[in-house]
Amino acid sequence: MSRVILVVLFVALNLYAFIHCAQTEQDNVQKLPKWGWLLIIALLQPFGAIAYLIWGRQRRQGPGRGGPRRVIGPDDDPDFLRKL
User: Fold this and answer.
1) What is the DSSP string of 57-71?
2) CA 12, CA 7: separation in Å to the nearest integer?
3) pLDDT tens for residues 3-31?
């Protein structure tokens, strides 16, 4: 039973990584071209999927991620000015 669960998890991981890589723009894929990652994911299961998820996809930048936030005044903030 546990072997079946492990196989299902590996298949799901490979499928997720392959679809994610295929739908991602080339500019958001790091280290290798997109076709290279797709080939690695397909041939080196499940290690290719793990490698892509660790090194191949670009980390999202957003609130709470990345460097320090820049403080701007209300007169320079477009969101604040739209609300007026």
Assistant:
1) BPPP--TTSSSPPPP
2) 9
3) 999 999 999 999 999 999 999 998 889 89
